[in-house]
Design brief:
By secondary structure, the chain is α/β, with parallel strands linked by helices. The strands form 5 sheets. Strands 10-7-11-12-14-13 form a 6-stranded parallel beta sheet, with helices on both faces. Helix 2 crosses helix 19, helix 6 packs across helix 23 (about 575-585) and helix 34 runs antiparallel to helix 35 (about 870-880). The longest helix has about 45 residues, at about 1-50. The protein is elongated, with a radius of gyration of 33 Å. The mean pLDDT is about 95.
Amino acid sequence: MDIDNNRNTAIEDIETSEWLYSLDWVLEHGGPERVVELLHQLQIRAHKAGVSIPFTANTPYINTIPREKQPPFPGNREIERRIKSIIRWNAMAMVVKANKQESGIGGHISTYASAATLYEIGFNHFFKGKDDGYGGDQVYFQGHASPGIYSRAFLEGRITRDQLEYFRRELKPGGGLSSYPHPWLMPNFWEFPTVSMGLGPIMAIYQARFNRYLEDRGLKEDMGNKVWAFLGDGETDEPEALGAISLAAREKLDNLIFVINCNLQRLDGPVRGNGKIIQELEAIFRGAGWNVIKVIWGDDWDSLLEKDVNGKLVKRMGEVVDGQYQKYTVEGGDYIREHFFGVDDELLKMVENMTDEQLSIMRRGGHDPEKVYAAFSAAVNHTGSPTVILAKTIKGYGLGESGEGKNITHQQKKLNEEEMKEFRSRFGIPISDEQIASMPFYKPDENDPEMAYLKERRKALGGYLPSRKTDVKPIKPLPDSIFEEFYQGTDGREVSTTMVFVRILAKLLKDKEVGKLIVPIVPDEARTFGMEALFRQVGIYSHPGQLYEPVDADSLLYYKEAKNGQILEEGITEAGSISSFNAAGTAYLSHGINMIPFFVYYSMFGLQRVGDLVWAAADMGSKGFMLGGTAGRTTLNGEGLQHQDGNSHLLAYTVPNLIAYDPAFAFELAVIIKDGIRRMFVEQERVFYYITLMNENYAMPQMPKGAEEGILKGIYKFSGSTKKSAKLKANLFGSGTIMNQVLKAKEILEKDYNFAVDVWSVTSYKEVRRDALETERWNTLNPTKKPKVSYLAELFKNNDGVFVAASDYVKALPDSIAKWLPKPLSSLGTDGFGRSESREALRDFFEVDAKHIVYAALGNLFREGKIKSQLLNKAKKDLNIDPEKPDPVYS
């Protein structure tokens, strides 16, 4: 039996060899195209014969670019190695020193240690600078690698020694360095916030697409610049990291390059201990249509692969899981010989002339400059699709026994003197043993070859990166004529604030000055918001144009796609849409163009769903308008619990430079948008706006005289009482569509109870609170000076009325300004889960309708002793108030 098996195996080996020789002959005489054709025909024949061929999107676990196809390396490898070693040292010393001075301050050594070669090849040969103005590449640096980026900038003379000393100590005199890329904190240095993880990749994709959008619309010249996104293999578990890669392929974004640092480790342990993350990512990206370049093995492995005529080494490389590769990193060459090569006599024979030491230092591809250069060169010159480079590295590379390849390496922040000496010696840093204890930074003399080479390379590539221009030319103020019609009201015609917004947007798009700068962004809800008229007016952006006849081609408002289209119709993705908003909203910094994005979406799916990307927008200085459509928990009546938004304005409080408004009327919306454009694009303030829009129709009144200031400050008197002699007074606060309930309550109180009622429109609780807090802070810090008076306090000085506020949002919103009112405030809001019902029923359920507003005002007067209990009880019966009804918070 064994003889038969051996004979069959021998025959199979001969068959395999014959097939491989045949393939080699075809490749030599017919070329790669003929090989592909034959393999395709063989696959068809096998299928016809009933052979089930397993699907795979993977190529073998070797480098995509073989050695014979590597381009010549153009740089001086020895000088580049010395520069990289110096940067490694300073990055490590920066983190170690910071944690010695302030225990627990944090920082990361291991990420940059693994990625240094990837970055240095980019800096020395590929990343284009911005010295020519607003050109250059846009690089999304992996956040945890920031110490290395700072260290290079230190050699370049852009960051001082004192700043390195104050890494993560930003409040020190002269300022320190932020933990990660934060443009808000270092506006002339960082461009893109890439921590929290996962945000960099999705923003890079939409940045590359927006760059193409600008080019296709003739607003920017195509200069061949690239968008680079550096990320870690563990980061790809974040949904945002891979969630939009199909868009990049569909749009053929060959201006986009991902570089994934596959060091096989995340914070706690292996990324895929029992699998292979590089193969997993290759399948995902190839399946999505990306060009995939794997850089797995350094040149130490080339000679072994040449000997591998039977493919046994490649097979072994492919069958070992990542957790075991991590084990090889921390063990010696004897372990590698026994456990990697020792499974097969032929493999052992391959390395019989190599020492254990030689085996232990065989490099991964991501640490080999020539392999990395070849991959970057292929990526930059590839056309027709985006490229991802999967570079295998070792986390903590160079840290030796203190952390190289170990599970604890991500948290490594301290090294002892012996470990520092080992690091110093390994990378040839000219620092003596006596100096080691002080962890000095090292910078060569300006005339040394390393410094000359570093600066020459960046000059040749167009200047230093990262960097950001902040001197932006403002736009001209908008003419009043665009907005005047909205100040007049609708003369009884009922419209929603959403309809008003669409009309304002249409007029802005037609304006000769700013029309071309407007960027409407919609996540597949344009028809919901009544924006379909804009399809025909300005078109939906599509790089290839419209390759089909739309089904509604015969209608006036047909679905029109165009290469120069202006609307970004993003499909069902709020994360993608806000990423487009961020790209458009920072175009004034990236391209010197004051693009004005209007991102319209279901309000519930904005701050609540993509709050992390909104925070990134704030950090990077995005400008524009986020418009929460179908807003209000009782106004969007039919959609139910998941859609009805009563939270977003409270969430807006958390973003410092986000200006939030909840307008009730057309004139309020017009005033807010006009002033927003002035503040952001004329005065160049680093703010952006959140405005809620409702889908309830009602007549829009004329703007009261002198209301503009109060609209913008957040509160103004919309309707004063004509009952000057009334003894009972109430101040009713209304916002959004609930303003109509407040006006009904005023009518009831004045007609049935002889109240004097003033109605105040609160357009922004956040702005009212901001002013009050600023005033309070000034008074706290200046106790010996005459106290300042807030806008709110000034409005209600000597006001003897009771206070009731009603909105379509949680009660915490009006509560946030209550402490600055002269009397207690009764807040009515929509705390709790929404549900599908009529607006009337919902407002009764949440107790924000006119009758509950009336009853709250009467209750306040009763507590003040100004009305009798008999009147209150009668009102309860007349208004049909049920004190025993379930609390909507828990219902």
